Amino acid sequence: RQEDSAHAALLTLQAELWTLEKHAGANEKISQQRRDLWKAESQFAVLEEAAQRRQLSAQEKSLLAHKDETLEYKRQLAALGDKVTYQERLNALAQQADK
User: Taxonomically, which superkingdom (predicted)?
Assistant: First the structure.
């Protein structure tokens, strides 16, 4: 299980790096909800890989059984979080322009 945990951390960082490189604009910010989505996607990838190598616990099986609903919910949160982050950035720029 420690190996699964380490692999999950690696996948999360790889996903975050990929997205940061993709959104490398100076004014772009990434919402916490988007980061949470990446983390969940990585955790599910690790669980699916672990299922090929060992017997999953009841809790792990339950998590995988609800994967699609969980990820869809997190995608919706990420989209909304991105909009909030973008609006906050616009508001900050507008305040700077008013000064």
Answer: Bacteria
